[in-house]
Amino acid sequence: MTSPKDERSDSSNRNGGGRNGGTKDVGAVVNAIQLLRHLAHQQAPEGVAAIARATGVSPSSAFNILRTLNNEGFVRFDENSKTYQLGIGLSELTVNLIGQSYADLIQPELERLALNLDILIVLWRITHDNHVSVIARGIPNVAHVDVRLDSRLPELIGACGRAIAGVRDLPDAELRRRFARLRWENPPSFEEYQQGVKEARERGWALDDNCLYRGISMVASVLTDHHNQPRFAISGIGITAQHNAQGLTRAGDAIRDTAHFLERSLFPRNLRENTIDE
């Protein structure tokens, strides 16, 4: 980690770090996405009643939405069985994504967070040898610390480490053993570290305040895959003097929400619990 850069620019008139920015979701659009997500997880075509029951969308709304999606080619309706399945029209929406890496797909979210939160945003890949490696960054328009691409750290150190440990839910003895091997500029006690892991598990993001590096504050959240295994971590890394407790909490919440959004997009498992009916 090198010294802060000097570049500064006006950061006024920015939205908050959250993805929705306080706007209200459109019910019909949310329901259409719910129906498409449901069909994407099915091994065989389904009828309107089954789809509506599984998603919680009313049968009348489901029928109208599916009919519209069929007209646009996003689903295909079988006249004989009266069932629906995904249509070839969806390929039109994904053509520009084919061949892109996870880092490429996540990059716009990193940039959005960096600009909205005025903090360096880093995407870490969790490796098979118990390390994390930098694969992408979002650069803010304020003075900031710099983290080089391909930088590596032990996976359980810092804010990322607390978040990863919270997901792995390691036995106390194993957590203590691995903690003893970590090297910090301002080491926390094991009890303090363990409490940070517990808080990360409860709120979905972790904090490292002047422990890994003096004068540097970090927040982080983890992306897990279909099997609930940690695959990536997103961290916000800032100069402590620039970020108070309220700002770090705002950053942690925004990074967690983005991580959850990316999990659902890249590693879909279950439909959202809540639906919005017309």
Layout of secondary structure:
Elements lengths: L26 H14 L7 H8 L3 H13 L3 E4 L4 E4 L3 H5 L7 H16 L2 E7 L4 E8 L13 E3 L3 H11 L3 H8 L10 H14 L2 E4 L6 E9 L5 E10 L5 H22 L12
Antiparallel strand pairs: 1-2, 3-4, 3-8, 4-5, 6-7, 7-8
Fold and architecture overview:
The chain is an alpha+beta fold and 278 residues long. 40% of the residues lie in helices and 18% in strands. The protein has helices at 27-40, 48-55, 59-71, 90-94, 102-117, 158-168, 172-179, 190-203, 245-266; strands at 75-78, 83-86, 120-126, 131-138, 152-154, 206-209, 216-224, 230-239. The strands form two sheets. The protein has a six-stranded antiparallel beta sheet with strand order 5-4-3-8-7-6, sandwiched between helices. Strand 3 and strand 4 form a beta hairpin. Helix 2 packs across helix 3 (59-71), helix 5 (102-117) packs antiparallel against helix 9 (245-266) and helix 6 (158-168) packs across helix 8 (190-203). The longest helix has 22 residues, at 245-266. The radius of gyration is 22 Å and the shape is elongated. It starts with 26 loop residues before the first helix and ends in a 12-residue tail after the last helix. The model is unreliable at 1-16 and 271-278 (pLDDT under 50). This is HTH-type transcriptional repressor AllR. It comes from Alcanivorax xiamenensis. Residues 1-24 are annotated as: Disordered. Residues 26-88 form the HTH iclR-type domain. InterPro entries: GAF-like_dom_sf, HTH_MetabolicPath_Reg, Tscrpt_reg_IclR_C, Tscrpt_reg_IclR_N, WH-like_DNA-bd_sf, WH_DNA-bd_sf.
